[in-house]
Design goal:
Mean pLDDT: 94
Structural class: alpha/beta
CATH topology of the largest domain: L-fuculose-1-phosphate Aldolase
Number of domains: 3
CATH class of the largest domain: Alpha Beta
CATH architecture of the largest domain: 3-Layer(aba) Sandwich
Organism: Pseudanabaena yagii GIHE-NHR1
Keywords: Oxidoreductase
Shape: elongated
Pfam families: adh_short, Aldolase_II
InterPro entries: Aldolase_II/adducin_N, Aldolase_II/adducin_N_sf, NAD(P)-bd_dom_sf, Sc_DH/Rdtase_CS, SDR_fam
Number of helices: 24
Protein name: Bifunctional aldolase/short-chain dehydrogenase
Strand order of the largest sheet: 3-2-1-4-7-6-5
Length: 657
């Protein structure tokens, strides 16, 4: 564990709050310290209020902010005087605490203060840092963790037994810290939870955190509990596409909504999943209680999702009566799955959620294995973890509800996705909450978007092997396939039949027709498993109902594709797969409409380019966005009773009509 402090970087921050931002980001850069909203930092600053009175304000990390990217706006300013009064109370419910914190903020636009605000206020230091350092948790989560922490730190830290986060933890910490701190005190360790450091400057508090965590790492190394030896051999399975998709369907059925799966068969994940004792060590509980909100208390080992659900219901039935407040059972589906063939599979309502679970559990696997090497991993009792999972504040979020985007938890694949209609389809599907895989022959597709719910794959759709590989990648990334948008195509320069060479004809047929046949055939087993039924939309053409001269290959290929879709609608309806076709016309912001083609077609009809662009009954220009929005809607609830439809989107074409 090394300090990342830089005098040059720090000089850019001129205020205490600015330096608080800087060192918070330093902590956030290291995932072994904090992950996805974990950890807390604060600073106490004296300020004058609007009436000229000086008061001490605690700036504490606000809810919803990550330390890695936090800005000054991410800190909630709360009046210290009131916080110190609250710390002396014997009882304060979570809802009362949240209300009190909100009423004592000095900026109405600031985020909600952390639930650990009172704890930060009660510590008599200007700067306070709190992390969930992997190395410290690896030590605390053992049978004799308390003694080991004492061995590592001696009188340099105050040790606090596990208490649920919130007001009770703040009260216990305030009392115990006041009684046990000394001039040597550098920090505080919360058993099974994390570690605090503090100081009079941002640098002092940050570098104390680094030094304290480094001592835990050194202890693990000294006791041969740092390096995790790889297994002698690993089982690797190549054919997993359908297995993952089936697993996703079963998890979705138990959850009651579509989910995204993220599959990880790297060496570390497979090694953990294939441990002979995985059924024992993985079933102790999460590394820290706050992880339960993301990962649930236990992972599923193997693929018996129904058995997991039954076990979860039994866990709820056992613990719910002990709760101080009535609680409503959450969905019973796992969030982490450990499988000897698949490795680590994580589950989320969205791709982002699934990735967060993966990040957390990758660190959990290391913590568990290091604790094992140190004498045996031991998590908190189920009742303590249940209390956080069914925390009053978390239950309140459930009651508020709120609707999710239409395609949340669903997975779409779009061909020809780097530009034009394809890119617009990607945007429309992402906007509706889908995880999207984009295929394109242009390598730019791989960098189209940098976000967890998009994967771009360079793929020549006329290559069957490339399609198979792409589907494998799609399923590994997101778990299956619900929506297929067949958009990739070519539109050759105008050419009359008597001049049409065989090579051009065959190329157009191969890309516009045969590639879609292969993709549909390979995608069918996945679409059949879609929790809400599969949907396919093919981008046809006005040339199907109303072909024009000098476009024989294009017109024939799109007509054949339309007929293929009609047959598929007949064959696949019993599998709950609905298939529809859009027939756009004159969509000029696409890759196939080069200046050469546009000029040629306008000249053919004796029109200027601008006249050609709006050459329809409504005199409107049809854009990629218009087509994409309709394509997305055809995959949604409005078209739930429609299959084999052919819908024009052309501004009104008299020849079609």
């Amino acid at each position: 564990m090394k300090s990342l402090w830089s005098d040059r970087e720090a000089a850019e921050y001129k205020t205490d709050l600015g330096l608080r931002v800087y060192t918070s980001r330093l902590l956030g850069r290291d995932p072994s310290l904090v992950l996805h909203g974990g950890g807390n930092t604060s600073v106490k600053i004296r300020e004058k209020n609007i009436v000229g009175e000086e008061e001490e304000i605690l700036y504490v990390k606000g809810s919803g902010w990550d330390l890695e990217t936090i800005a000054e706006a991410g800190f909630a300013p709360v009046r210290m005087a009131h916080l110190l009064k609250l710390a002396k109370l014997q009882v304060l419910s979570d809802s009362q605490m949240v209300n009190e914190l909100k009423t004592q903020m000095t900026k109405a636009s600031a985020p909600a203060p952390s639930v650990e605000t009172i704890l930060h206020a009660s510590l008599p230091y200007k700067f306070v840092d709190h992390t969930h350092a992997d190395a410290v948790i690896s030590v605390t989560n053992t049978a004799n963790g308390w003694e080991r922490i004492q061995e590592i730190y001696g009188d340099d830290v105050v040790i606090i037994p596990y208490v649920m986060p919130g007001f009770d933890l703040a009260r216990v910490c305030a009392e115990k810290f006041a009684a046990e701190k000394s001039d040597r005190t550098l920090g505080m360790v919360l058993m099974n939870h994390g570690i605090f450091s503090f100081g009079e400057t941002a640098q002092e508090s940050y570098e104390r955190m680094i030094a304290l965590v480094d001592r835990a790492e050194a202890y693990l190394k000294k006791h041969h509990a740092w390096e995790i030896s790889p297994p002698a051999s690993l089982i690797r399975e190549s054919e997993q596409r359908l297995e993952i998709a089936k697993l996703r369907t079963e998890v979705s059925q138990v959850a009651g909504f579509p989910v995204v799966l993220s599959s990880h068969n790297d060496e570390k994940s497979l090694a953990f999943a294939q441990r002979e004792d995985v059924q024992i060590i993985s079933q102790q509980g999460c590394a820290t209680p706050d992880h339960v909100i993301r990962t649930k208390r236990l992972p599923l080992v193997g693929r018996d999702v129904k058995a997991y659900a039954e076990s979860y219901r039994a866990y709820f039935a056992e613990e719910a009566p002990k709760s101080a407040q009535p609680v409503t059972i959450l969905d019973t589906a796992p969030r982490v799955i450990l499988d000897r063939q698949l490795g680590l599979v994580t589950v989320g309502k969205s791709a982002k959620d699934a990735q967060i679970v993966a990040d957390i559990y990758e660190h959990t696997m290391e913590i568990i294995q290091r604790s094992q090497l140190l004498g045996g991993y031991q998590a908190l009792p189920a009742s303590d973890i249940f209390a956080v999972e069914y925390w009053e504040l978390e239950q309140a979020k459930l009651k508020k509800g709120g609707s999710s985007p239409a395609f949340t938890g669903e997975i779409a694949l779009v061909t020809g996705a780097a530009s034009g209609i394809g890119k617009a389809c990607v945007d429309s599907l992402l906007k509706r909450g889908a995880a999207v895989v984009g295929l394109d022959i242009n390598p730019a597709i791989e960098k189209l978007y940098d976000r967890p719910d998009f994967v771009g794959i360079t793929c020549d759709v006329s290559d069957e092997t490339a399609i198979a590989i792409s589907l494998d990648q799609a399923v590994k990334a997101f778990g299956g396939l619900d929506i297929l948008i067949l958009n990739a195509g070519v539109f050759p320069s105008g050419c009359r039949i008597e001049n049409l060479d065989t090579a051009t004809w065959q190329k157009v047929m191969q890309i516009n027709l045969e590639a879609n046949l292969v993709l549909m055939r390979e995608a069918y087993p996945l679409l059949k498993l879609a929790p809400n039924g599969g949907r396919v939309v093919a981008i046809g053409s006005k040339n199907v109902p109303a072909p024009g001269p000098a476009a024989a290959a294009y017109s024939a290929s799109k007509a054949a594709l339309t007929q293929l879709m009609r047959v598929a609608a007949l064959e696949w309806s019993s599998d709950r797969i609905r298939i529809n076709t859009l027939h756009p016309n004159a969509v000029f912001d696409t890759g196939i409409w080069t200046e050469e083609v546009l000029t040629s077609r306008a000249k053919h009809y004796g029109l200027t380019i601008e006249e050609y662009k709006t050459n329809n009954l409504l005199k409107v220009e049809v854009t990629s966005h218009h087509v994409a929005e309709l394509a997305a809607e055809m995959c949604g609830a409005l078209f739930a009773c429609t299959t084999a439809a052919q819908v024009p989107i052309d501004g009104g074409n008299d020849r079609v009509i």
